[in-house]
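The records we work with from here on pair a chain with its fold. Taken together, the tokens spell out the fold as the letters spell out the chain. To see the layout at work, look at the sequence and tokens printed below.
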Amino acid sequence: MSHPSWPRRAVTATLLAGLALLGLAACGPLGSVSQVSMGEEFACARKADGTVWCWGRADSGQLGDGSRSHTAAPAVAVAGITTATSVATGTNHACAVLADGTARCWGYAVLGQTGRGIGGGTGEVSEVLPVPVDGLTGATQITAGASHTCARLSDGTARCWGRNVEGQLGNGTTTTAFAPVPVSGLTGVVSIQAGAFHTCALIDDDSVRCWGANNRGQLGNGTTTNASTPTTVTGLTGVAEVDGGGNHTCARRAAGTVACWGRNTEGELGNGGTTDATTPVNATGITAATDVTAGDFHTCAVEGGSVRCWGYGGNGRLGNGSAATATTPVTVAGLTDVQTVEGGAASTCAVLTDATSRCWGYNGYGGLGDTTRTERVAPVSVAGQPLVVKEVEEIESGGIHTCLLTTDATVSCLGQGVVNGELGNGTFTNSRLPVTVPSLTGVQTIAVGAHHTCAVLADTTVRCWGRNADGQLGNGTSSTSNVPVAVTGLTGVVDLEAGTSHTCALLTDTTVRCWGANADGQLGNGTTTPSNVPVTVTGLTGVGVLGAGLAHTCATLTADGSVRCWGRNADGQLGNGTTNPATVPATVTGLTGATDVTAGTNHSCAVLTDGSGRCWGSNALGQLGTGSGSSLVPAPVSGLTNAGQITAGHSYTCATLGDAGGRCWGTNLFGQLGRGHGIDVRTQAYPVPGPVAGQTAIAHLDAGTAPATNNGQHTCARLTDGTATCWGAAGSGQLGDGGDWTDRLTTNRKVVREG
């Protein structure tokens, strides 16, 4: 039989320093976890540093990272949450209390459960990024139900918001509230916990008061009548902990016994029967419980380091080796030294005293963490999670692959490799996580094209790998290579730029050599003949910075900051006032003082010494950032100041700022601008720069080089803490976050490696 989903209360655990919860080892993104909360097939954890990380189901944005991408590994950071003191998950939303007493919520919002929702927020059915709860201050703890949320305040009162059809907000009405309302007559609140459609509070006299749905007696007041204001649970004293399930509630007494009330069809009250109870009944044989959790139709308690569960056994959620229902407690197989237990809608996890974890039950979204989607009737170890790649020196976005240079002078690549061997590891396979390019050491810099990559070594020679149909590997052949090959006759290289199907190198003598496709003159040697070995760009010396696009190339000159471009010019991307191609460098009209230059598919841009930007070429999708039409000569980028570095992809552009922020503009079909979620955000063209959502620590940006394909639009950033993050198209795993193939709309998922 199937059962509805239910919300979960948060469990706080004292964990070993430096380790993590749910098998996410200290080396992973979730070190020093102090609290975890389980929702419907997703979970969120609060770290000791005040950040919140979530994993699992995400179709309503309940991971809070700006996406709707399910992920079992790795967990993703909730955007902008850095001072959380409490976290809670509901059916498909989540909330956190911050150190200043305010709260933020994210996920499904149509019933007001985020505190802003449809009625007062952004107009979104779901909030994929955290939004502030309107008017809430002084909060110390938060809890989430199926479609409502409640918070305990520092003065011992409580506020609730969201769905209220059953009176679960406790304010004497059944009217949904899109902002917090006071729970009537409730003071002395020690903790508050939400069930699916009811809420309970532990009071400072060790009693419990509940309100909301009562169709199965879950309020414990001897009736089955809903209550829109708090009612006292009958005959219950000495309570140390309370937890609300789907249609039942359980309490742990300080003496170690457990009492439950409400629905009992599956034996979830643990008293040996299947008859509902409108007042508390004792779970059989539980005398020394140290933790209790109420699931949807099951309950578990920690006792003597073991876990005992009872109720509905479907999906293996009781963990005793079967899927059979049990009306009295059964022992979970093979578990000792358990610290806390946490029940989900159809699964359960236990945290051991060594800070490792075992999970069992439903696994349809990989929520058990054992790298499978197989149901487990007994505990399995939660697999180690990928590690965030740190000490990144450089990250470069290609068409549908990405490569990283780390401070140890080695290179790792990820994304598509199945066709052209773009990963350089000797295979033709894809990877959603970085794989090391073997036998490549002493790397100084890298350049990534649409389907190939090149690296400058310490001896100033160059190695390239990947697609070579146009000679872009420069080794004198047109044969694809899945391992690095030496570029013929090339030394003295200080920098590289890779276009879609050509490559250019800046030499120590400030001249430039290029190789590969040349149908439009992008090699700059006065011909349109391709070359599988380097050729000299005609008449070009004193070069400072290179930029390579689809079929054109640009360079700055150090003497005056002027810019020269060559190759395709159908859209004016050479900036010389014409649409005529150039097989040798042509001067960009009226441009001096350029400190950086970049070339996209059909446009080019530069940053000037004053931090402003200039772009030229096609502006069909807003890629010039001027807010107006296309331009054959440089035009000012609207509102761009304090820019440091600029990068162009297909029909979009991004720039770093002096304050470590970022701005992007142009097409956002795949979320490549990193602007977060919004109505039609993936289809709009943004004609002027806007901020990269949730990111203020950008050291360097790189836009993908591919043309407009379903997989070729992504952006990556190296952050000031030495990590890297990518966003946009994910169809070939090129974002490196280990997640699924769904596009990412924000920057919160960092590039990871397997631990």
Summary: Helices lie at 117-120. The chain has one helix and 58 strands. The two ends are 38 Å apart (CA to CA). Residues 1-31, 119-123 have pLDDT under 50 and may be disordered.
